[in-house]
Structures are given as C-alpha cells and as structure tokens.
Amino acid sequence: MEATIEVRGLRKRFGPRLAVDGLSFTAAPGLVTGFVGPNGAGKSTTMRMILGLDRPDEGAALVGGRPYRSLRTPLCHLGAMLDASAVHPARRARDHLRWLAHANGIPARRVGEVIELAGLGSVANRPAGGFSLGMRQRLGIAAALLGDPPALMFDEPVNGLDPEGVAWIRGLLRSLAAQGRAVLVSSHLMSELEGGADHLVVIGRGRVIADTGVAELLAAASGGRTELRTPDRQRAMTALAREGAEVAAAERDAVTVSGLPAERIIEVLTAARVPFTGIAEHRATLEEAYMELTRDAVEFRAGTGGEAL
Ligand SMILES: Nc1ncnc2c1ncn2[C@@H]1O[C@H](COP(=O)(O)OP(=O)(O)OP(=O)(O)O)[C@@H](O)[C@H]1O
C-alpha cells in the first residue's frame, strides 16, 4: 500500500500571527522529504494540521488522499512522532506500546517487532520516565512504526541526539523510504539532513521557499567551481584570471576557480609553470546550498537559530 502526504493551501493564524501562510507540498512514497526552516517557520504547526491536532483556517492536509481524522485506523496509515516526551513517565516502554496497539486494534505481537526495530530490547521493561533523550526518541519512533504505516512523519527527530543517534535515525529513515514509504522529517538545521533526505521542502514565515530534489539542489549550488591548492597562489591566480577565470583566495594555500573547467585549469598552470598540489571540483554541502537558496530571506541569514519574525 502506498500513501502520499499532501498539503494543499494550508493556512493557520494564531491571533495576530500568521503561522502557516498558504502552504502546499507533497511527500511522495519512496522518498525521505526533508521539511526545513528556522525556528518558528511553521513546521510543527503544519505537522499538527496533518495529524488533525490543529484545525487549518484554510486548505487541507491529506494522507493517502484522505484527512487523517477521517481514517478509521490512523496509525496504520500515518505513523508520527511530534513530541518524544509525550509518554507517561511511570509506564514501562513495552506497556506504553501495548496500550497504543490495543487502542488501535493492532495485534500485540507487533509490539515485540517494533521494540526490536527501534533497538529498545534492553530497556523495554523499564519505566519511560528514566529514559535518556535518545531512548525517548526511539520509543516515539517505535510507536510511529506500530501500525506498519505507508507514511511516516517525524518532527525534529535528531534534535539533541549524539552522533551515533543521528546516524541511526538517518539510516532508519532511509530504510523506511527504501521500503516504499513516504517519510516527512522536519529539521531547523540543514546539516542534519545531509545524506538523509532525497527531497527538500524549505519554508520560511509559513511559506514555501523551495521544493526541490536534493541532488538537483546540490548540483546547482556546486555551480562549476574548482578548488585548487598551490604553494604559489599569487601566480596561479594571475595566470588563471588572464584566461578569463574568476578566482578567489580561500583558506591557506587554496584558490576557488570558476568559469574554467578543471582540465583547462591544469593546462594553464602547467604552461605557466605554476606548481599545484591538489585540484578538485567543488561539491557544495547542503548547508551551503541552503544559504544560497535563502540568501535574500533576511530571517535565514542569522543562521540556524534565527527566529522567523
Ligand atoms: N498554539 C499556538 N498559539 C500561538 N502561537 C503559536 C501556537 N503554535 C505555534 N505558534 C506560533 O506559530 C509560529 C510557527 O510555530 P511552529 O512551532 O509551527 O514553528 P516551527 O517551524 O515548528 O519552529 P521550531 O523549529 O522552533 O519547532 C511561531 O511564531 C509560533 O510562536
């Protein structure tokens, strides 16, 4: 069973504050769709509307073509983790999952399966109140997987996790998408999605700024630049500029060259007898691509912590 998460013209106002301003996008089956924007951009509000927890003023959110609230067995259509702390602290992890399964008509044997999938085997009989953040995230993810849903949604799942936890979640998201599921994952840090997302929906002030494949975005941001290392930077820059290249000094012995292909750079340097120790076509990071994409949006420029006011 395939399911798409679809948001159509969503709008939500809290008093004077327009939190979501006519948002439309799709998270398609088989892809991890990163949902990115600075703090306050409207990600959580959008996710709450997808789950029917907040009512939109306008527009609709659909899971497999239907509003979440109209689904008879919602956990079997969309699994979600919005707030990993939403567990009774005295309740054992296994009992929390059993209770959820029971309430949703899911067979009890599935509880053991998701405990294994989420790597909770050794702590499943302990009260969730004593769990570390990483363990709570894993419990939230186990709950999202209970109904074996074709669509999944996670709000900032790697926030505050150590590198091992981040790598684990990234691998899990990838494998869920590889099984054909639609996976929507939010983050306010672009770097957290590096290597994890196939598609990106970037939002700011409740609006879509970009809706693009990660590969296309990185290719566009890499933009034919080459990085050169040379002990004789000044002569290299002069020789390349004479050939019409745009050159800029980078850190230590590095020069960034654009406007000339790498083969031509090598020819020019060789002819001018300028030594070089390395040459590589530049590959933009997701963070660089994000900065380029959002260069004109002041709210992003303060960096990752900028409040979208
Ligand atoms: N229940 C609410 N009442 C009033 N304002 C709200 C409410 N929920 C959200 N907002 C406001 O709506 C805007 C969007 O908030 P939201 O939490 O959706 O952003 P976000 O992108 O998820 O941010 P973060 O990365 O910090 O989680 C913010 O200005 C927030 O203060």
Automatic annotation (TrEMBL):
Lineage, opening ranks: Bacteria, Bacillati, Actinomycetota, Actinomycetes, Streptosporangiales
Family: Belongs to the ABC transporter superfamily.
Lineage top rank: taxon: Bacteria
All residue ranges annotated as the ABC transporter domain in the record: 5-230
Pfam (any one): ABC_tran
Name this protein carries in UniProt: ATP-binding cassette domain-containing protein
Keywords, ordered alphabetically: ATP-binding, Nucleotide-binding, Transport
Gene3D superfamilies: P-loop containing nucleotide triphosphate hydrolases
